[in-house]
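Run log // design_07
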């Protein structure tokens, strides 16, 4: 029995010796945008800055697992192409004074397909907006960069009301935004 335990320990140790864990941070050129509609015009808001960390596990063939990933987006870093009035309506709708941050935490991911320059992931996570947390799933493309960084690209359509957010209105209700928004991201992480 003792020799079987020793063999198992050696086998586990041997496999782990080829895997390395690296901590990553999100780079400044990362981009997240929110696209929506209204009864008058479409609109886009950009997230001007956010913070996040990721821990990735690499093997001989490249990345094999995202062990954890989290993002924090200050609500006041959401800036609209339509100007400060739209920004104010967004901050009010998201209750920025009570809930100053939007948070995302990756719960699980698995590589579904390798590509010439990276891979596709199916992910599930928890998104917290205006104090309410909802599970979300996304298909994400990962592209290996020559310098060792990884670019993640994807998009997800969300309903504001799923998070208890009333779509913003303006001009005494004459302008109403649609309930659905699409979040698009191109985020680069580096060691």
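design_07 sequence
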């Amino acid at each position: 029995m003792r020799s079987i335990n020793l063999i198992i320990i050696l086998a586990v140790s041997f496999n782990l010796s080829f895997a390395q864990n690296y901590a990553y941070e999100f780079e400044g050129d990362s981009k997240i945008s929110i696209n929506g509609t209204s009864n008058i015009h479409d609109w886009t808001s950009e997230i001007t800055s956010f913070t996040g960390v990721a821990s990735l596990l690499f093997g001989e063939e490249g990345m094999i697992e995202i062990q954890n990933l989290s993002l924090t987006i200050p609500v006041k870093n959401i800036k609209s192409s339509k100007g400060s009035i739209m920004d104010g309506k967004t901050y009010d709708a998201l209750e920025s004074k009570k809930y100053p941050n939007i948070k995302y935490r990756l719960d699980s991911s698995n590589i579904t397909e390798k590509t010439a320059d990276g891979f596709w992931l199916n992910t599930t996570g928890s998104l917290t907006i205006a104090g309410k947390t909802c599970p979300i799933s996304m298909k994400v493309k990962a592209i290996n960069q020559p310098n060792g960084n990884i670019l993640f690209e994807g998009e997800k359509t969300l309903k504001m009301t799923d998070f208890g957010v009333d779509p913003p209105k303006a001009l005494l209700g004459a302008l109403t935004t649609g309930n659905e928004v699409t979040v698009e991201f191109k985020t680069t992480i580096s060691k």
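Helices lie at 2-16, 84-93.
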